[in-house]
Structures are given as C-alpha cells and as structure tokens.
TrEMBL record:
Belongs to the FAD-binding oxidoreductase/transferase type 4 family. It holds the Pfam family FAD-oxidase_C. Its cofactor is FAD. It comes from Allomesorhizobium camelthorni. This is FAD-binding oxidoreductase. Keywords: FAD, Flavoprotein.
C-alpha cells in the first residue's frame, strides 16, 4: 500500500470514512457498498500498477465510473477484501480526428463532456442518457449503455472503434485503433464492452463521431396501445428513410404515476387519455418537417395515431421530454416492488406488453404497473409498484414471484432479461436461471481464462465461479 500511495500521490488514495461515502452510494438509494479504500489513478500505467499489486495480494478490484449504474455493479464488499478503483482522474480527451470521424478519450471522461468536446468541433457524439452529466464513458462501455438514440446510432458498443484495457494480470492491451474494418482475428474489443468490469479495466476508447443533423423534428403522438405504436414506427421509418433517432413509449398508467409526483406535466391532448409516443426524427434534407407531417397525417388516417402535436419550439419539446423523464423519477420516488429492464424483438413488443399487463394484474391486483421505454429498440422498463399509499418491501416472496413471471415471459418471447442496464450483482441470480447453461458455461470459461484469480469485480455478472 505504501508503494501505491507513493505512486498515486496525495489525492490518489481515499481512506477517510467521510470522503469515501460517495464511492459507496447507489443512484436510487439501493444497497450501499462497503469500500474502505478507493484508489484514483491518473494514467493507464498507474491502473496497471494497481492491478498488478492487487493480483499479487489477492485483493478484489471494483472499477467505478460515475456510480450511476442500477444493479450494484460498482458496489464493493464490506469485509475489506475488495477496493474500489475510480477512473475519475482519467478524464483527458486525447485526440479528435475529424478526418477519421473519431474522438479518443480516457475512461473517466463524463459523457456530457465527450458530447461537448464533439460539439466544439461541430460533430455529434450521440450516446445520450438521463445520467449523462455524471456517468463516465468507461462505465458506459462497461455496461454497453443504450439511452435515447439507439434507434438511429446504436448503443455504446456500436459507437466504439477501439479500446485500451488493463487485464487482470496488470498487462495493458492497446487496441486504440480508429478502424471501420478490422478482421484480423477475434473481436477482442467487444469482449470487454458490456463485461461490467469483470474481465479488465477500460482505460481509454476511440469513439465514433457523426455530423450534427441540420434539423430535428420532435412530435408527441396519442395512440391506443403498444401494437399501434409499433405499426406507427414502421410507417415513420419507411417514409423518412429510417431517420427516427428516438421512439419512446409511455402508456397511460405510467404517465398517471408521473403526474402524481410532477403534477404540472404538459397535457398535449388536454383531457384525452392516450398512451403517448415521443419521437424525434433528425436529418439534413430540406423537407424533413413536411415528410414527418405527412407520415403522421397518414398514421392518423390509418388509425395508428389518435392525435399528434409537433413541437413548435424548444420549450414545447422540453415539456414533452419532461413527461418521459418524470416516469422513472416517479417510480424512484414512489418506490417499487420490482423493476426490470428487458428487451424482445420488435415483433413481440405488443404481445409481451399485453401479456404482462394481464398476468401481473392477476398476480398482484392492487399493485400499479409501468411498462414503458425505448420501444423503437424493443426495450421495455417494467416496474410493479405497491398500491397507492403502500410501501415496497423488496425482499419478499411476492417480489420474487413477480420477477419470475416477468423474466419468464420475456425469455418465452426470445428476449433478454437485461436490455441496457447490465447484470451487476443484483441480477446475477436471475442470469443464472434464465441464460442457457451452454452460454453460462462459455462465459465462465472466458472469465477463468482472463481472470484466473477472480479479482476483477468479484460476484458481478457470474455467480458460481470455482
Ligand atoms: C437518471 C438515470 C438515467 C439512466 N438512463 C439510462 C439509459 O437510458 N440507458 C442506460 O443504458 N443506462 C441508463 N442509466 C444507467 C447508468 O447511467 C448506465 O449504466 C451508465 O452506463 C453507467 O455508467 P457509470 O460511469 O455511472 O458506471 P458505474 O455505475 O460506475 O459502473 C457500472 C459498471 O461498470 C463497471 N465499470 C465502470 N467503469 C469501468 C471501467 N473503466 N472499466 C471497466 N469497468 C468499469 C463497474 O464496475 C460497474 O460494474 C441511467 C442511470 C440514471 C441514474
């Protein structure tokens, strides 16, 4: 430890209990971590030195970005067997290469700062999510974050061309290449993206940049159900050359919860009580506005949409987005019995939504449901809340039964039990139950090959390691 203190400098080791608190926090007040030591390297070589020292001493390492992940992935144990490695001092933008359309950043860069660095060169880095003011690019890649523009630009994995990674033995793999094509062997980069710090520590990345769309049309649409919303999406994409960047579904029940907590939310359709779709379409063609208007007029005629408002100003656009943002905010404040982030093929979204609505209501008739999310990506957030005025007890039989019902339904539709939030510690048991034994076995073999000592983010993603 003395060696690491000397290497990292006076601000590089945090062991004061008052200062350590924020490294043990959880974004929604869930189970806290118990780290007693946090190490804050400034450079890749320092990360490598820490990992080598931990490997020699058999100490577990919990990488931590902005600490906004939902599933306890960045949570350290209380027994002192693990330390937290925070990337927060590694926040340099190493290069912006306009000709290659890339930006190379260190893992501790805050997502909003990467967006701003791109914007300063009149480019777009399109990864965008509610926590963008505090999450780190390393955390985004480690969780393969999604967010609100996946439909057009893909998730974190799709936006990354190269990675620099420190392996569990302390060696550094420099894969910081800005190549759009590279078939020189196995795809090592994608092994680390989405691995939640269990295979190595991401220290830097080459990310893709895009032209900034000349204009963006934002509209809110009243629909009768998820099935019509999916049909509307297909119609919109066909008429706009797939220019939709987001397509968010907000059913009536979820909006009602949001209004309980944020009563002054906009009411785009007055007293009419529709499910809502919030969409944005971006591009540079001259007649984009007219094209979107025509697509929505067609949807009204075809009965896919009941009413439409196209945002006439940035203020109105913000008021539409506020409805969407208020839903998870309300769920967080009202408390949930279960909450899951799942995905199914687009063709199954309507079926799954209807099935969950019926079956969850029958199992927990007094509870309240919110099934909403990034519908364009087949990604639904499913939350069951206690009856109005009731409190949630997360660790009870009902919660397990409800979770089993949701996840079984998702898997029966050939979906995934985690669309964009990962597995962390909190969903590791469910992964064990719902991923095939062959896939789990392959994941364990990879983990053992890269991290035979099991020091990288222990207990996360995979349980039952030897
Ligand atoms: C208000 C709000 C809205 C959100 N919206 C979305 C959304 O729309 N879409 C979405 O996908 N997520 C969303 N999230 C979840 C969260 O923001 C993402 O999972 C984010 O990518 C986590 O980044 P982080 O830097 O906070 O990572 P952390 O929470 O610090 O860590 C997450 C995991 O990554 C590992 N890790 C972190 N950094 C590294 C690294 N450098 N190398 C290796 N492993 C590392 C950690 O060990 C942990 O397992 C939201 C969260 C909040 C609070």
């Amino acid at each position: 430890m003395a060696h690491l203190r000397e290497l990292l400098g006076p601000d590089g080791v945090v062991d004061n209990p008052d200062l350590i608190d924020r490294y043990n926090s959880d974004p929604y007040g869930g189970a806290r971590g118990g780290a007693r030591i946090v190490l804050r390297p400034r450079a890749t070589q320092e990360v490598a030195a820490i990992v080598s020292a931990c490997a020699a001493a058999g100490v577990g390492i919990v990488p931590r970005g902005g600490g906004t992940g939902f599933l306890g992935g960045a949570r350290a144990r209380y027994d002192g067997s693990e330390l937290v490695l925070s990337l927060e001092r590694m926040r340099k933008v190493r290069e912006i290469d306009i000709d290659s359309g890339t930006i190379t950043v260190e893992a501790g860069c805050i997502l909003a700062d990467v967006q701003a660095a791109a914007a300063s060169k009149d480019r777009l880095f399109p990864l965008s999510l509610g926590a963008e003011g505090s999450c780190h690019i390393g955390g985004n890649l480690a969780t393969n974050a999604g967010g609100i523009q996946v439909l057009r630009y893909g998730n974190a994995r799709d936006l990354c061309l190269g990675l620099e990674v420190v392996l569990p033995d302390g060696s550094i793999v420099d894969g910081l290449r800005a190549l759009r094509k590279d078939n020189s062997g196995y795809d090592l980069r994608n092994l680390f993206i989405g691995s939640e710090g269990t295979l190595g520590i991401i220290t830097a990345a080459v990310l893709k940049l895009f032209p900034v769309p000349a204009q963006t049309v934002c509209a809110i649409v009243g629909v009768l159900d998820a099935g019509r919303a999916v049909a509307l999406l297909h119609q919109l994409q066909a008429l706009t050359d797939s220019a939709a960047s987001c397509f968010e579904f907000m059913p009536r029940g979820a909006i009602a919860l949001a209004r309980e907590v944020v009563p002054d939310l906009a009411r785009p359709f007055g007293a009419h009580d529709y499910d809502l779709v919030l969409m944005e379409v971006g591009g540079s063609r001259d007649n984009l506005g007219e094209t979107v208007e025509a697509a929505l007029a067609g949807a009204l005629e075809d009965g896919l949409a009941n009413d439409v408002v196209i945002a006439a100003s940035e203020v109105q656009r913000r008021s539409f987005w506020r409805i969407r943002e208020a839903i998870p905010e309300a769920i967080g404040r009202l408390g949930w019995i279960i909450t899951h982030d799942v995905s199914v093929p687009l063709s199954r979204v309507a079926g799954l939504t209807a099935e969950l609505q019926t079956e969850l209501t029958s199992l927990a008739p007094d509870c309240r449901l919110a099934i909403y999310g990034h519908l364009g990506d087949g990604n639904l957030h499913v939350s069951v809340l206690p009856p109005a005025g009731g409190t949630a007890d997360a660790d009870n039989t009902q919660a397990r039964e409800l979770s089993r019902l949701v996840l079984s339904a998702v898997v029966s539709h050939r979906g995934s039990i985690s669309a964009e939030h990962g597995i962390g510690e909190d969903k590791a048991q469910w992964l064990q139950q719902f991923k095939s034994s062959e896939e789990l076995d392959l994941m364990r073999r990879l983990k053992r090959a890269l991290d035979p000592l099991g020091i990288m983010n222990p207990r996360k993603v995979l349980t039952q390691l030897p």
